[in-house]
Amino acid sequence: MTAAPARAPKRRLGVIGSFVWDVIHGRDVRSAPVEEWGGITYALSACDAALPDDWELVPIVKVGSDLAPQARQFLRTLRHLAPDAHPVEVPYRNNRVELRYHSDERRSEVLSGGVPGWTWAGLQPLLRNIDALYINLISGFELDLETAQLVRQHFKGPIYCDLHSLTLALEPNGLRTWRQIPEVEAWCACFDVLQVNEDEVAMLAPDPLALAAKALSHGVRTLFVTMGKRGVVYFEDAGAGRPLRTALVPAAVARVDGPGDPTGCGDVWGATYFSRAVAGDTLEVAMRRAVEAAARNVEHRGASGLAHHLRGELHAP
After folding, report:
1. Which of 3, 60, 117, 157 is the most buried (most CB within 10 A)?
2. Which parts of the sequence belong to the Carbohydrate kinase PfkB domain (predicted)?
3. What is the three-class DSSP state of 101?
4. Whole-angstrom Cα distance, residue 291 to residue 232?
5. Rounded distance between C-alpha atoms, residue 83 and residue 152, angstroms
6. Architecture of the domain whose range is 11-303
7. Confidence grade of residue 67 (pLDDT, cut at 50, 70, 90)
């Protein structure tokens, strides 16, 4: 009898970010505040929905001991979760964010909790056997610049980063406020693909084109600037002395009655794009998939069951 051929090992997508428990005000004027998982759970759900079956998902995340059981329960809902993946429990109160929406795209944010960021010594062993790395600076404190530089130096696969809350300071009362980012060029040199939104651009450069020039001259291959309902602008280094490629990709229209829920759309967009890009999609195809996923996210409340929703599946709560 001929032995069956050995099955090729699955490739592994590492995801760095933070679990956050959200309390959301103003998302629906008819209801009381909503409490649910936020933070990296949106990106994890999007990766889970977008990855093909020959990839598996490796969350590289810390969680406070007060919410560790709930975080493990959430991860168990992910179809592509690697068998050896688990959150690192730390003896601190988990991060919590109070969000107050003033419009679909404008909100204030107050952070509490104390989950610490990664040191290189703690992170290095977790990056072994990782083929691609998605980083979302949900709190802004997951990595400092020195640690990000060491990741770039030692990790040889592609690295995607959503700068997210790196551009937010933390006031004594927990309110997040905008701050200018020093050493922008050094941060850019740590990543192959960089994602920011319009407000974040202003903390990094005078305008998106100036940021693109700065980022692409320091190692970033593709810069994405998300613009909410207007879509996404991308800037790509075409290489070999060819001119910069840039285009606006319009947002898809969500099929939902009322305003929908914009929470997590940027996270879903970036995680979907990178998952499809590492799976082999062209930039244009991966972006189209990301735009569609972000629109579907608007139709869903929260991250619970989101991966099922993004795949178009029915899911009992």
Report:
1. 60
2. 178-304
3. strand
4. 8
5. 26
6. 3-Layer(aba) Sandwich (3.40)
7. very high
